## 1
Amino acid sequence: MLTAGQKKLLVELKSSLAESVPEGQISESDYAAKGYHLDVRLQKGGVRRVAQIMLDRRFILETVTAVDFIDSFELVYLYSTYYQQQVRLLVRIRIAKDAQPYSVSAIYPGAIWLEREVYDFFGIRFQEHPDLKRIINPDEADYFPLLKNFGKTKFTDQIDDILC
Amino acid sequence: MEVKGSPICMPSKGFQVESKEIPGVVGFAPVQDLLNLARVNALWPLTFGIACCAIEMMAAGVARFDWDRFGIIPRGTPRQSDVMVVAGTIPHKLVSTIQTLYDQMPAPKYVIAMGNCAISGGPFSYDGQYAIVNGADKIIPVDVYIPGCPPRPEALLQGFIKIQTKMTKGIIDANRRAEKAARRAKK
Amino acid sequence: MNITQLPYIKDVYGFLGSDVMSGLVGLLIIAALVPLNVAFLVLVERKVAGHIQLRPGPMEVGPHGILQTLIDAVKLLGKEMVTPSSTDKLLYWLSPIIVVAPAFVGFIPLPFSPLVQIKDVNVGFLLIFSFSSIGVISILMGGWASNNKYSLIGAVRSVAQNVAYEIPLLLATMPIILMTNTFKLGEIAQAQAQSGLWFIFYQPIAAIIFFIATTAETNRAPFDLVEGESELVSGFHTEYTGMRFSLFFLAEYTNMVIAAALFTTFFLGGWHGPVLPGAVWFFAKTYFLLFVVMWIRWTYPRIRFDQLMNFAWKILIPIALVNLFITAIVLKVL
Amino acid sequence: MLNIKTIDDATISQRVYQLNLGPQHPSTHGVMHLLLTLDGEVVVKIEPIIGYSHRGHEKMAENRIYEQFLPNPARMDYLSGMIFNHGYCMAVEKLCGIEVPRRAEYIRVITSELNRIASHFIGTMDYAMGLGAITPFLWGWDDRENILDLLEMISGSRLTYSYGRFGGVRNDITKEFYDGTRKFIDRLRSRFWDYENLINQNVIFIKRSRDVGVITTEDALAFGVTGPTLRGSGVKYDVRKNEPYSAYPEFKFEIPTRKEGDCLARYQVRMAELEQSINIIEQALDHLPPGPVRAKVPRFVTPPEGDCYVTFESARGAAGFYIVSDGTRVPYRIKVRAPSFSNLFVLTKICPGHFLADIVAIFGSIDVTVPEIDR
């Protein structure tokens, strides 16, 4: 039940994203079930190119976060706009555990803190970030808490003992 | 068990304050009592709210549960406050701040650990927890614990009253003297 | 006129009736009156604040919380006198003492009633203002000595504020001096009693400026930037504990009483009143003014520092000058 | 405002000193540490240091089943605890595809709007207290206590609610709650006249708030600012209207905005939102549908593999839950989008050039809750 304006914007977005990030797979997802309209999966890079397109279309960068899939990280960027139609876009990129992605803080100043938080919890170092240091955990902390191998994480096979 | 009419925060029947005689305590009783009475009726807490319990502490200072009736004025600086109400969770980043604040407070000072987080880490303490200290008594000596998450403002007021009963019976000073004597004896 | 100037006193009591003795008795009365006054005022302030904020205020100590301030004082006496190591010891120790001294001196020339006046100093009005600026020096000393950034900002603000508001204060009282051409407060009150018309009707603008300037002078109400809790933690007395902190408190409330008493002497006819004896009228007017100051404190937020300065230099002083100018012309013509 | 650019760097370095509006300060609404670099009383640089009430919510989520994580959202933003609680339930319902009965949706809207009113009372009156007026703070709390009584009647707690469940709410609202809310709404309408006289037309309040801390729409866009702080700068963005969720499409209400973008505009937006919330509650109470309060849901939900993002309008802005599930009963990753996190960072852009007293005002007008920032 997308409105006409949203459909037009989505089509235009897909076209501009496709020609700027050719190797990315752009798929439309069901907003009712997923909460976002477009799911952009990038392969090698292009995070900053996508960010530049988003800024030109007056999207805001809602969150930058990461998910630790044991062998690799998945960086997730969420863009949404409120100027024209209400559209939300989820950009994901799989990076190796020791990869150093580029920071989008040059385009979105708000990303400075968001990326510092990702570094603080996952240890992902962003290149060209103005001052990449810990933001929430104590500065002298040497651990990255949200990694799956840090501390006690209940994996799927240990469900029984948490049945309290 | 059918509880009719007894207000929720009345202490259970088994609660008695045992004031056994502490040997070797020499004090000028009347002056000490007058000073204790004065300290009891003018407890100035340090406004140091960390999390949700801070909102209930503010609620205790507001028109409905007004703690000004007991002569309690919240003071901004540790220099002029008697009671430090640790209201909320204590992360590692805050430990040094709490300790410096506690040291800056002048001599007859007391601490109220308000809420489960300040007593034992509350809902956030589990074996994989990396961020918080499990309880305020691990970093500063605590006199009164107020359970609840967050405790109701009346519970905080009862905490203040409990500290008042402790102060007027001199138990806190006696305990501290007994500890000092024990430490000296051990040395 | 003073009770000791009655003719028969000197020869009947000999030395007992001499000026020196009356001065001593007067100082004793001040030493008793001032702390009692402050204790009462602090309690009234907390009660007024409570009732404005829909809550009862102190209730537990004594009947209806009357002894609350007494208990506060005893508790503060019992507190440890912390002297932080990084402070400038001498200034830190001296500043609370110097802040209280001028507050006591201010009571000498105040004409409580035709007979009751400690010493009708012939430069009474100048005496009070000059001593009040000594109080500012001690605040600066206290703020500087406690080696704490917040208190330094508070102290520097208090100096700028008092300098800015001393001028409109004096300019506002000049028309009164022109009208009664005397500095003696007793005679000013006497002039209003004889003419029956209080000076507030002659000089409404001067009265308003005087009231605003004294509220700012005593760091009260919307001008309490020196001890602004929400910005500077506790302003200049952040590092003071126990009895030293209460001395600052004592000085602040005494200055408030002197300011209100001056307003009643200059504009509300001092002890002049129809039926009741003089002193009752004097204290009634003074305490009503103090209630107004407290009432303002609990309704208005604090103004910013540059607004404070602009208000004094750009608005109050020009108006005070114009008012003085007009009074001079009118007096010349009449 | 003093123009910082005119002072060249050489002189700045001598006259500048650092002041800690430290973790413990009367007007930092919790343990927020603002490291100010001051030149005299004018702020040259401001750096908020956070993390003083970090409790590791997201790490806890990874070793608890979905039901066990229910109490946590309310403890993140405890001023709008009910809204966060319902938000988390909505996120899991969207993930598992659970259908919520209409009566439960209405009850969720009523309790969320009551909680929003209570949170705005603290936001606005704490701002007024930052300026030095203490009486409005106590008047605002007086009204807030009535709301807390109402919400305590049905949910049992005053601040940190666990009233929402997957598929609806814990229990139905009682007749007492229904009449209590009606009475409360009438009383609140009569109280607006008091606030109008005490604060809104207070000359000093206006002079202290006008043209202080102006956030332009460009800054708001670049920093991801949402909520009343954004609506104060003239952008009409409210998740309840732009991305209608729960039962909000069935109610008629407008989104108050102001163009100036200064502290006063943000204050007026919050006060205007009180009236809108009352309208919503009244409409919801009038058309409260009968029916069950909770859908048939298995005792432990097991969402399918995949991820989903749900956003909702908390009192501070567009909050959101991004849940990644690996098909088991333990969430693989829960990311909470805290609106205060982005709203706070805009301070570094707008504060230089203001006075120390303004910093307290701007920080109060942005109305952040610290545990929501630190999570």
## 2
Amino acid sequence: MEITVLFFGILADATGLNAKSYNGIDSFDDLRHRMEDDFPGIFHYNFRIAVNRVITEDNPVLKDGDEVACLPPFAGG
Amino acid sequence: MEITVLFFGILADATGLNAKSYNGIDSFDDLRHRMEDDFPGIFHYNFRIAVNRVITEDNPVLKDGDEVACLPPFAGG
Amino acid sequence: MRLIEGPLMPGLIAEVIAGSGGSHDTGAHALFLGQVRRDRIDGRFVKAIEYSAYEEMVIMEANKISKTILSEFEDVRAFEILHSRGMVKAGETALLVIVSAGHRQQALAACGKAVDLINERLPVWKKELFEDEPDL
Amino acid sequence: MRLIEGPLMPGLIAEVIAGSGGSHDTGAHALFLGQVRRDRIDGRFVKAIEYSAYEEMVIMEANKISKTILSEFEDVRAFEILHSRGMVKAGETALLVIVSAGHRQQALAACGKAVDLINERLPVWKKELFEDEPDL
């Protein structure tokens, strides 16, 4: 599967990226390991995951073309 | 004593006046009778009394030059 | 507190909002705008409201309201009331309350309290003018 | 919901207020304006905030907030949110919420609830820029 990962707030600063594409992903767990390889320690940040703009639980089922967003605590207003 | 009486809201309509001066007033009770003579039934309206812009109880003590205002229920905003 | 002849026009409202923006420790403004409704009363529609006020007492009471708000809500930095007197047509604005505070909760709570106090305590009266009546 | 590049300027705010005045059964507008504070953080003063947003999700969440407000407060006639993205200086406005209703209680309560939901649910982030840093 091809998955697009989006980084917001402090995670955009930490990774230096707004988005990154991953190819050949099997599962969320696989994606997680690939992200940890690219950005060591990223999962120590406090953030939630949205898949296609809907906030999900810990281990979502992914399909090809999904957009996975990493959302630090919101601070609008 | 000389007392100025002010009429607001529906009481201005009912009396046809915004204000009226009364001379030779002894007491609030005296004023009340003079007002009742001029505007029969006026004390059947629902209103409060302010003396010099402070809302008072039923039978205030008056002094020369006081301004007595007749205030129907407020309806600002 | 300012009593304004006729409706509070959008330009005036914008000016008051812009004028309250200056302070650098202000994070929130809560505003309330009261507008004349085209209410139906006994089958007739309201065209306008004529507001009358006991002006000297309005100013006194507004100062008391201001003191109450500023002492009850410590985070409030600025507070202003504008109210119309005279004729205000349906759809036009007759009341503006603006509360500026450090943070949102106090701004909103103080604004609600101020609007309640204005309704209870300001010596202002309404007279409806209906659509089937001639203009004054 | 509208995302605006940079601060919400007084002219824009006036336009939104004027545009919400039309309906004749509206008696009350409650507004909230959120403004960037010159906060002191670790001895440094905030000069500006850069807002970033997950834009597609902001629009989705704002629609949900709108539905929640309109269903929970039956007297609410109109509801709008404007939020900045990009750089907003201390003293400038970054958020406008406007709620129009028949009567004051529902307008004020709905505005407070909307501001809470915006803070909890809109995917927007802040980055402070300090006075001792160069401009971006």
